[in-house]
Amino acid sequence: MANAKEIKRKIGSIKNTAKITKAMELISTVKMKKAQDLAIEKREFVLEMLKIFLRVEDYLSDFPLFSVKNSWKKTLWVVITSNKWLCWGYNVNVMKKVNSYVNETNEDLDFIAVWKKASNFIVRTWNNLIADFSDDFSDNLEPVFTKEISEFMRDHFLSWKYNKVVVFYNFYVNTIRQIPVAKVSLPIDSVDIKNYLFSILDWHVDLEKEIEEMKNGYIYDVEPTIETYLSEVLPMILDMMFYDVLLNAKASEHSSRMIAMKNAKDSANKIAKALTLKYNKARQAGITSEVSEITAGVESMKDI
Fold this sequence. Notes:
By secondary structure, this protein is α/β, with parallel strands linked by helices. The chain contains 8 helices and 5 strands. The protein has a domain at 59-253: 3-Layer(aba) Sandwich (Pyruvate Kinase, Chain: A, domain 1), CATH 3.40.1380.10. It has helices at 2-41, 43-56, 90-104, 116-124, 143-158, 190-201, 207-216, 226-302, and strands at 74-80, 108-114, 129-132, 164-174, 177-186. A 5-stranded mixed beta sheet has the order 3-2-1-4-5, sandwiched between helices. Helix 2 runs antiparallel to helix 6 (190-201), helix 2 packs antiparallel against helix 8 and helix 5 packs across helix 8 (226-302). The mean pLDDT is 79.
């Protein structure tokens, strides 16, 4: 029965693992839903931003964030990962995307890390890390906190030290599919902003109706100047765009971890089931052996 006891001990260990992975799966499910809800809640704000943006679109061509004045081949890369592992290929896919771009480009690169796995990866690959926001943010993303990174990116771009800013992250498609992307965040143009605002509102707002009502509405003057107005409105839009990137990244992370923990739980249950069958066979064999020994003993006593 020694073998059966060992199997029973393994069954207990495997079942405990299944309980832990199930709990982690449920936690990731809740966090993923929260990230999705946050993305939905900003639609009203986005609609108002779109109305404002369409009124000032014609004045954007000379705005600093829409042009590159630096001829140097220097790029700022922002890498977004997670603080922890156990999320399938979430972090690995982003790192592979970064590595492929590093091998393809001849640009001089500086890096910003968002969450710990990004900073570990950048330092380990001997790249130049100029800022690490790993300890500043939790799973509870708030625009007031993500604004810090967005402002940091803009300030460095406007210093003319960099000719572009590229963000690497996982784009959330659905629960089982997340795509690693490299998105040029700066410089931008009006088409990029409109496409972003439209993509959030599409299928949820009658855009044609809203735009027509805006065109037929009162045309107002902007004071003190259009430049002052843009200097306030554009950063708000860019902050929101980066906030949306982080929401996508977080939703992708929680989806990946949820699927990974579900697969781990299912595998643990399968192993526990197989071990239970093996245990029952070993236990049955032990009982059969004991019965045989007792029967043999009884039969031997009859001959005395």
